[in-house]
Amino acid sequence: MFQAFHPKNVVNTPFLFLTGKGGVGKTSTACATAVALADSGKKVLLISTDPASNLQDVFGLELTNSPKEVPGVENLFASNLDPEAAARAYREKVVGPYRGKLPESVVATMEEQLSGACTVEIAAFDEFTNLLTNPEIIEQYDHIIFDTAPTGHTLRLLQLPTAWNGFLEESTHGASCLGPLSGLADKKNLYSKSVEVLSEPSMTTLLLVTRPDVSSLVEADRASMELKEIGIKSQILIVNGLLQSYLKEDEVSSAFYHRQRNALKQIPENLKQNEIYSLPFVSYSLTGVENLRYLFKQYSIPSMELSFENETDNLPRLNGVINDVSSDHTRLIFSMGKGGVGKTTVASAIAIGLVETGHKVHLTTTDPAAHLSHQFQSDELNQNLTISSINPKVEVEKYKADVLANASKDLDEEGLAYLEEDLNSPCTEEIAVFRAFAEVVAKTENEIVVIDTAPTGHTLLLLDAAQSYSKEIARSTGDVPDSVLKLLPRIRNPKETAVVIVTLAEATPVLEASRLQDDLRRANIEPKWWVINQSLYATNTIDPILRGKAIAEIEWIHEVNEKLAKKCSIIPWQHEEKVGYEKLKDYID
Amino acid sequence: MKKVEIFDPAMCCSTGVCGPSVDPELTRVASAIYSLKEKGFDIKRYQLTNDPGKFAENSEVNNVLHEKGPDALPIILVDNQVARVGSYPSNEEFAEWFNVTPEELREKPKARVSIDINSLK
Which residue ranges does the record assign to the AAA+ ATPase domain (chain A) (predicted)? Predict the structure, then answer.
């Protein structure tokens, strides 16, 4: 239904960026593209800036930030830029010299301040700018391919130059959020050069990678529009993992096929404006140069062992989670996970499960890509279930307006301008959203609150620090809202709060989820459950291609169940999208 | 003329909006310091994450930190002596130190100043 993607016919710019939410196959597509271009005689550099990258596994090669030749492929070089490592290095450069000179507790506050998302993003962007603007590197290669991080991260990464350019120019007092990162200010010219390169169609092509499912298409559409807005207009859509045929007698196989085809009927208008190509659903893992070469030949099945015993039968399904939080008298449940793993669906299903067990429940969402209204459509709801949503953009505006209104009593115009500028900082959103759900929680009585997102460990630690700080100095309290003061200790209390991490049984989603867990542990919060969503392995399909994929899940199910999760539950791949109260109940039957 | 130095705790920004709420105290202090600097007074401000060196080198500040930990911040030095620990001076105190009226500390320059990128270091 779409032309098969082959890089030789499609790619003609020196720079190539891949974007798409975690788990759509960016790394595999990037690697296969790189191999194909190199095979056609071009000199290619493949760079991973994805902290969850498995580039090293794909080539079976230890990679660093300096390009290394890939054995078996002439003209292909690869390197790995881990933004978290870069951020760690940056943090250590700032903090390291003062260990031993300043008290440990003081050094700890510095480290936390430099552990936020901003530091990682800036560090990543910095690495990436260094490459994009280094003629010595650029001139050596015909193509440089960036296997970038999942959508949200990519977007911020790419949006940064514009944001920062504006920010650096407008900064009238020279302190502000540049704070920990002020060392980067003199790179302003490099940043604007990066922006030029990115928005020049003869230089840069953006490959939007999606799966043929509704949520990843919606996400690709969002990314596409946002990137068009900041000037990256040369875009190509790749539908990855398209099942070419199905077994009529296998319920899972035919449902899988038809779900994909139905999703593709609803490709958003904006995405239809792009050239669209497809790559086949394959059962083999895309590691090793030979398998990567198969991909563009559209091979879907090499021979493989098809029989296996199902080990997931003894893992609880979602009702295990529901019974557990119900009998534990948990009052606050957060589902947490990267976009597209189904955390809104899982939160909704848990909420309904609790209602069905006889609880009063309030369900709320903060995920801009999730639509609770979509999840429930025009259903008649159970009277024990109420629903609300928190829109981060609206909350930020509200918070800014609030702050400015309050402050205007004491400040004149110039002082306000000063404050307004600090309010444009990236931390503002996290704080604004946290305040919003603190309010939701405060308003509920006798209800279990289920929220489809959780604050990061970093936010909690900062809030905590701010809280003890203001306690210490009674004079200098800003008015920390009551709802926030009350919520912080509740989140920390495992008797009251359960965090449920949602993931898929695939490399990238598992790695991303384990990072979320690490971050929460820093704030002394231990996630109670992991939910492996959409597992093909937990179905009984006999379709050889799907079954091959199911076998590939085993490794990740083990990783979650044995190493990462305190308690692990698994949800089999569902034959249809569950929309509405009655349908969502299927998850708990 | 007196020399005043302010040693801030680790924070992202000098108005404190990154905290759970905006601290009007921080906004007031930021504005007062801005006014004093504009008048040419010797007043400096160091933030822990930006200028850790200043905290480590200054023996007065370092002593207070070793004794009381990070909660002692902000620390205010007047002519190299510790004048205040754990909170910011009032506008009246600032006014007294620099021999101006507290009202003058609320005066703001009318034009936005452009910043020299290189001076940000």
Answer: 12-242, 329-526
